[in-house]
Design a protein that fits this description.
single chain; mainly alpha; two-stranded antiparallel sheet; two-stranded antiparallel ribbon
């Protein structure tokens, strides 16, 4: 295994790594969700919550298959986050990343126009902002990789043009497209069912991988 993989595995889900700043961050996260739920009760519109949970759910799936890559190659995941963190949950996932993705969908949703059909540069505004947020996220990841906080091992998943395109498409864009798909379902029931399907895939993968096969990632 690569040095980054071994370093990440050495402190995987180690509760002694917890830091106090997790508490105020968690409080802020809970406040935002409670505020959105309260607003949803007034308006009947819970789409901000659905967008937030959708993007986090798809990231949960991404981090799960990324961990499977580590186990199946016995070398490295596509991305590894071996650096300092308050808690590393998987080799490429930590509590700071989790908080960020739980908020990303809400931020994206509140960027949208009231009229979701309104276009920006000829694109439906949800798609325009999906592209914009994805591009910005890749921009941030470029610096994280450059600084050694986020390790990219494989030549097709790196800072080259083709690598950046792959990260843009499969690391971020489908998150926001997934959120757009969920919030455009016609009923709350349909949105909940879609969300349940999104979460069931990584849950089953982790039950099989960690629970049955005993994989560590």
């Amino acid at each position: 295994m690569t040095e980054a993989s071994l370093e990440a595995l050495s402190s995987l889900r180690d509760l002694s790594m917890l830091k106090w700043y997790v508490i105020p961050l968690l409080t802020i996260l809970i406040y935002i969700y409670v505020k959105e739920i309260k607003e949803g009760r007034k308006t009947g519109n819970y789409d901000a919550i659905f967008a937030g949970l959708t993007i986090f759910g798809i990231d949960f799936f991404n981090e799960t298959w990324n961990g499977w890559v580590l186990v199946l190659t016995n070398r490295s995941a596509f991305w590894t986050a071996p650096g300092d963190t308050a808690l590393r949950t998987m080799v490429g996932w930590n509590v700071e990343i989790i908080f960020m993705f739980l908020l990303a969908g809400i931020l994206w949703y509140h960027t949208l126009e009231e009229d979701k059909k309104k276009k920006i540069l000829g694109l439906p505004n949800p798609l325009f902002w999906a592209i914009g947020y994805s591009a910005f996220s890749v921009f941030i990841e470029w610096f994280l990789n450059k600084g050694g906080l986020l390790i990219w091992e494989y030549p097709f998943w790196n800072r080259s043009f083709s690598g950046i395109i792959l990260i843009f498409l499969f690391g971020y864009l489908h998150f926001y497209l997934g959120a757009w798909f969920v919030i455009t379902r016609k009923t709350i029931r349909a949105k909940i069912i879609t969300l349940a399907i999104i979460y069931s895939v990584p849950v089953v993968m982790n039950i099989v991988g960690m629970g049955i096969l005993g994989w560590v990632y």
